[in-house]
Design goal:
Shape: globular
Structural class: alpha/beta
Radius of gyration: 21 Å
Number of strands: 17
Order of helices and strands: EEEHHHEHEHEHEEEHEEEHHHEEHEEEH
Length: 417
């Protein structure tokens, strides 16, 4: 029967499965299956389990809150974790981010950010960038440009979304500087030919492309985009759904660029696996959002708030970011060593523990991922053509666990050569 999977006849077959594993538990960087097999999980549930699976501090916070309040709907009354979480986010986000709205997922936060930008500016259009992934709702599908498969058979999609180039420093035949100049000029050209500045509410960009292949925006490019936005009163929105919350070795990827976004979109690693997301913005922008024009039944759920506060406490503990960056150096150093013997590797890139390794053939990526899984390491691909393996381990990964993963990956690399 169409849409019914043979192994789970009561579940929709629409989920694309990375593995066929059925898991029963997770702890730290490892998951255990129904058959008792254990795997190093370097998918982190797609960069979500920032503190690892079932971190004791997060689990304790969830348990304690579950005994007090499970669902305290924010339209009906405010519970006592909303303001403490907002204050904590204010402390760790860039200085421009002052006021917060809570929701359930990255896609919902992205849609909310667009709605906020339209209300705050009175403008109707938005600009996104090539290679982006912003979600799977109708609007966020229209904003997503990393793969056509994400929006196959869903047209027509919402209008008012325009696409600007993101510099491709790996595949472009131009020099790096010329490629960056080309992309900056194309952004200006877009404002002159397709969406006038007076009609453009926001430019929304992932500082590090996620599904697009773990590509960090060149600093000069990103700075230029922000300056052009400021020049025209266009809001700059940083989509940090995948690259936020210490994933890149700093609390947020924009910290690498010393930039202050007007709006910051947060999700995934924010609550160690609880469905939770947030929009942060300048207070004067939030003040323009008409009360009642946006909301949600579960936004600001107290258990998710408790998990988020506990997650932030773990991520901001002394030495935590130092470990993230040390493990990143360990991983990238070993990948560069391997690249000297494997010409099929065409690029190694990323920030912190958001590392991509690109190969010359997507089939090779699939083979390596499968071989690594056979030996106990879970990885995922990325990129428009599936030619990138992304490393996104839990940020609590130890030196020994990273060494184990590197050994398994190298064996898979050799076995598939």
């Amino acid at each position: 029967m169409s849409g019914i999977t043979s192994d789970a006849p009561y579940l929709a077959g629409v989920w694309a499965r990375v593995t066929e594993l059925d898991v029963v538990s997770g702890s730290g960087c490892r998951v255990t299956t129904t058959t008792g097999d254990e795997y190093l999980d370097f998918t982190s549930g797609i960069a979500v389990t920032s503190t690892g699976h079932c971190h004791p501090h997060v689990v304790k916070a969830i348990q304690a809150q579950a005994e007090r309040f499970i669902h305290a709907q924010v339209n009906c009354y405010h519970h006592d974790l909303l303001t403490p979480l907002a204050k904590r986010l204010r402390e760790i986000t860039p200085p421009s981010i002052e006021t917060f709205f809570f929701t359930n997922s990255g896609a919902e936060a992205t849609e909310g950010a667009v709605k906020l930008a339209k209300h705050a500016t009175g403008r109707q259009n938005i600009i996104v960038f090539n290679g982006s992934f912003h979600g799977r709702t109708h609007l966020t599908m229209a904003m997503t440009t990393s793969k056509t498969s994400y929006k196959l058979n869903y047209a027509p999609l919402p209008s008012g979304v325009f696409v600007a180039p993101f510099p491709d420093l790996v595949h472009s035949k131009l020099s790096a500087d010329d490629e960056i100049d080309r992309s900056i000029s194309a952004f200006r050209h877009l404002l002159s030919t397709q969406t006038a500045p007076s009609e453009t509410a926001a430019a929304i960009l992932e500082p590090v492309l996620g599904e697009g292949g773990y590509i960090a925006a060149p600093p000069r490019f990103l700075e230029a985009i922000v300056n052009i936005c400021r020049e025209h009163g266009i809001l700059f929105v940083a989509d940090e759904v995948q690259c936020g919350f210490a994933r890149t070795g700093k609390m947020f990827a924009v910290n690498h660029y010393d930039l202050d976004p007007d709006i910051l979109i947060m999700a995934k690693g924010i609550a160690s696996g609880m469905p939770f997301a947030a929009i942060g913005a300048r207070s004067e922008l939030m003040a323009k959002w008409i009360p009642g024009s946006h909301g949600g039944t579960y936004g600001g759920n107290p258990i998710a708030c408790a998990a988020s506060i506990a997650t932030i406490e773990v991520l901001t503990a002394d030495g935590f970011l130092e470990n993230v960056n040390a493990r990143a150096a360990q991983l990238t150093g070993e990948l560069h060593r391997m690249a000297t013997d494997h010409p099929s590797i065409i690029d190694i890139r990323g920030l912190g523990l958001m590392v991509g390794i690109e190969f010359d053939a997507p089939a090779r990526v699939a083979a390596i991922v499968a071989a690594a899984r056979t030996n106990g390491l879970l990885l995922m691909n990325a990129g428009t053509y599936g030619g990138v393996i992304r490393f996104m381990p839990p940020l609590v990964v130890t030196e020994a666990e990273m060494a184990e993963a590197i050994t398994i990956f190298e064996k898979a690399l050799i076995a598939t050569a």
